């Protein structure tokens, strides 16, 4: 995965965050290792995480998307925000298939 995919979506994400009055930052290591992934599915996952971050972060809060190489030779993509977070019990439920 190269950073071009996330870079191509940065304007979209910035507009969504601006509309909700959030600060936005994208942090991508370069170069990233090659990985096999469906770009539309990755985009859908990031879009869903970003929508939740926007929804549960108060105006003026911050949202960051990061892509970094991991020790196994893959890429870790994260969406972090300054919102209210989730109760640990809710996290366990949310991660069930």
Sheet with the most strands, sense and barrel status: 3 strands, mixed
Distance between the termini: 26 Å
Order of adjacent strands in the largest pleated sheet? 1-2-3
Helical stretch count?
3
Question: Pairing-aware structural class of the strands and helices?
Answer: alpha+beta
Mean pLDDT over the full residue set:
90
Number of strands: 3
The shape, in one word, is globular
Q: Which spans of ≥5 residues are poorly predicted at pLDDT below 50? A: none
Radius of gyration: 14 Å
Q: Approximately what portion of the residues adopt beta-strand conformation? A: 15-25%
The ordered string of helix (H) and strand (E) elements is HEHEEH
Helix content: 40-55%
Provide a short characterization of the protein structure.
The protein has 97 residues and is α+β, with helices and mostly antiparallel strands. The protein is 42% helix and 22% strand.
Structure description:
The chain is α+β, with helices and mostly antiparallel strands. The protein has helices at residues 4-19, 39-56, 88-94, and strands spanning 23-28, 62-69, 75-81. It has a three-stranded mixed sheet with strand order 1-2-3, with helices on one face. β1 (23-28), α2 and β2 (62-69) form a beta-alpha-beta unit. α1 runs parallel beside α2. It is globular, with a radius of gyration of 14 Å. It starts with a helix and ends with a helix.
